[in-house]
Fold this protein.
Amino acid sequence: MASTKVVNLPNGGFSFENCQRNNFMSNQGFPAPKAVKTGTTIAGFIFKDGVILGADTRATEGNIVADKNCFKLHYMAPNIYCAGAGTAADLEMTTLQMSSQLELHRLNTGRQVKVATANRLLKQMLFRYQGHIGAALVLGGIDSSGPHVCCIYPHGSTDTLPFVAMGSGSLAAMAFLESGWKPNMELSEAKVLMRNAICGGIFNDLMSGSHVDLCVITREKAEMIRPFEVANVKGERQGSYRYPRGCTATLSTRVIPIEIESTVVRPVGEESMDTA
Amino acid sequence: MSILSYNGGCVLAMKGKGCVAIASDRRFGVQTSTLAMDFQRIFEMGPHLYIGLPGLATDTLTVHERLRFRLNLYELRESRKIKPQTFSAMVSNLLYERRFGPYFVEPVIAGLDPVTWEPFISAMDLIGCPNMPEDFVVAGTCAEQLFGMCEALWEPNLEPDDLFETISQALMNAFDRDAISGWGGVVHIIEKDKVTTRTLKTRMD
């Protein structure tokens, strides 16, 4: 009885309190709905100066396009980016969590994070959840031992290779990569090959679509090019379907005025460092 | 039959010029029976921040209460009104915590930034994947019809009065093609200096 008076602050981590109820509902004939997946074509490969990652921008919910311009290239560290395919919420949360872990690691060790570290952290986490976290990732970055690209599967296995593709459009992308990739490509060639690989997925895979996003990671910087190519332009509407004002019948109207409190702008001047 | 269509209901939000609009239907039913025509799915979380929670009605109420708790703690700790982007992250976190036993709601958030007055809309799936487009967001049992109506009717930079007409017509025509949504509609137009709430006269079948 005391528990009804004690307030439970959220603890962090997963909570399984609804599982029993949800199982019961599922048994009664009300299955749980599908979450948003990123059908996706993602790819990554090594070129002369570093690593290039590419992704399409469609997110699907069953057969409906939920987001026509979603962002699948996630920041992990200043020198490491990650493209994600699978369940969108899992990707978002996993990559956010990992980038926090990597930042703490970087502060702890005082060194630039290695791609192998990110790889190891991700695979250990995904294996712990035995594939129930639906995150398939292409991790790419450049560190003191050179450029690396790895693909990480939802169950926790990884492959470190010169070029990889993941997602439902991976077969189309891999076809382009297998025929076009060669070692020590120039940046311009690499961008064209990546664009072709992702477009292969966009135009041939139903669950991938919209535009091509690229991320180029070199020793000096990581450049996010969004969009690299607007592969599918929205059609132009021929007519205006505006309704004249007042045509919608209303039963009641309530206007709640909001008073804006005065805004105070306080300029903060340059403060000299206190080295006492 | 999916659990999200047990009670029925739909919510949509649109961006306008210096304003946002959020609208929902008012039916509450159990599969094919209608029990109430004044069910509240859109909740005010701040003077310029509204959240719509279509889906299983019990989870609508529960998620609203839990969010209100977290939001109150936030505002007490920070002594300021929450930004819509931060609130969206808070909702996403609450839903993802229950990744393996989710709440059956698909939230839609609409608001104005309390400092810059920038319009903001966002929608999530039931496990908290955020989607923040530039035009409109839809959720509910007639989401597909709403997508169709919004794609046809929405244009950028609509004034508040025009935005009201657009969102109302999109909502009504979409839920008229869905058996388990409808029975009334409510629209909130959120502007910098006022919020206008209108209830719509709709078909009651």
In short: Chain B touches chain A through 55 residues (CB under 8 Å). The longest strand of chain B covers residues 194-200.
